[in-house]
Give the backbone structure.
Amino acid sequence: MPELPEVEVTRLSLLPVLVGERVEKVLVREARFRLPVPTRRLRAGLVGRRVLELRRRSKYLLIDVEGAKTIIIHLGMSGRLRYLERAAEQESHEHVVFQLASGQDLRFRDPRRFGLVLIEKTDGLEDLPLMRHLGPEPLTDAFDDDTLFERARGRKAPIKSFLMDARVVVGVGNIYACEALFRSGIHPARAAGRVSRDRMRRLTQTVREVLSEAIAQGGTTLNDFASADGEPGYFVVRLAAYGREGEACLQCEAPIRRIVQSNRSTFYCTRCQR
Ligand SMILES: [Zn+2]
């Protein structure tokens, strides 16, 4: 599943080529996604309009266009956005194509169709049902240790589940949560409400580090989205804990242990993480 770093790298790679482009035509070959593609509204809102900005909120790509409209794209489980010459060969599952005045296409390919392509008014996007429950962006100042610490008061949920809760902070997937907890020395099963203020400060830093490293890594290997153990969508950051069950901890050489939390594998060091 595409994770936040992959969506951000998609945004960064499309930003310089897409802004200023004018949409000439919208082709919808298959409208049955997680929500149906609003073909008529897409055409009415886009044809003849220029792209003004490309933003991201959580794992949603937001393409602002003239006329105060925004295309909302979610890559779902298997979605990819590609910008290429109109003459480029059509691949299977290219369900939605934005033909641009420059002769390029923006093509949305999604074999499993868990993705989304929607159009809404630019004003008030944050109040849409898709967005209104979303917590702060991890790479902005809105994600700060004081807020995180206060939010965790009295919470008995394990810190790992707390960190992966989009209402608390968006975009911290399983691998990133494991690695950030390892780097912070926090046991993944510790109750969120029992993580000290200092450790919470360290945790906000390591979450940012892990995601930033993944984005930097993604920028250099744009097409290599799969990690070694088959959890696709994760750019391979230097994995110190995840996927290393039984191997020696890089800090203390104790064996890395695997447990299952909320049906997901958690890897941690029994000695370094308390
Ligand atoms: Zn260790």
About this structure: Residues 125 and 190 are 35 Å apart (CA to CA). Residues 221-231 have pLDDT under 50 and may be disordered. The first strand starts at residue 23 and ends at 28.
